[in-house]
Amino acid sequence: MRLPSNTVFISAKILLFYLLFYAVLIGFFSAMLAVFYQTLDMKKPKWQLSKSLIGDNPGLGFRPMPPESNVESTLIWYKSSDKGNVHYWKNELTEFVKSYDKENNPHEKNVEECTNYQPPSEGKVCNVKMTKNIWHPCLAESSFGFEDEKGGPCIFLKLNKIYNWNPEYYNSTSLPQDPNAMSEYLRKDIVDAESRGEDGYMSPLIAVHFEAPRRGILINIECKAWARNIIHDRVDRRGSVHFELMVD
Question: Which has fewest Cβ within 10 Å: 44, 139, 155, 196?
Answer without folding.
Answer: 44
